[in-house]
């Protein structure tokens, strides 16, 4: 899966977790929590959705890589390189 596809996957998950958020102006370099009303449970929902959809394990020690969209996509790119892009 290409980085642009991974970004879309993360956006789709964010839309489900926080349906009232306007993601159209999301700045990929700014932490999610500075732009959205996400609590720790929402963050865990993101991790669980990635695990459920793509069977990837993200250890708690790696959560620091999921702070911004840029860092999330960079972290997930090697993990999802063989995953098919969403339809």
Automatic annotation (TrEMBL):
<dbReference type="GO" id="GO:0009245">
    <property type="term" value="P:lipid A biosynthetic process"/>
</dbReference>
<keyword id="KW-0597">Phosphoprotein</keyword>
<feature type="domain" description="Carrier">
    <location>
        <begin position="4"/>
        <end position="80"/>
    </location>
</feature>
<dbReference type="GO" id="GO:0005829">
    <property type="term" value="C:cytosol"/>
</dbReference>
<dbReference type="InterPro" id="IPR036736">
    <property type="entry name" value="ACP-like_sf"/>
</dbReference>
<dbReference type="InterPro" id="IPR003231">
    <property type="entry name" value="ACP"/>
</dbReference>
<dbReference type="GO" id="GO:0016020">
    <property type="term" value="C:membrane"/>
</dbReference>
<keyword id="KW-0596">Phosphopantetheine</keyword>
<dbReference type="GO" id="GO:0000035">
    <property type="term" value="F:acyl binding"/>
</dbReference>
<dbReference type="InterPro" id="IPR009081">
    <property type="entry name" value="PP-bd_ACP"/>
</dbReference>
<dbReference type="Pfam" id="PF00550">
    <property type="entry name" value="PP-binding"/>
</dbReference>
<dbReference type="GO" id="GO:0000036">
    <property type="term" value="F:acyl carrier activity"/>
</dbReference>
<protein>
    <submittedName>
        <fullName>Acyl carrier protein</fullName>
    </submittedName>
</protein>
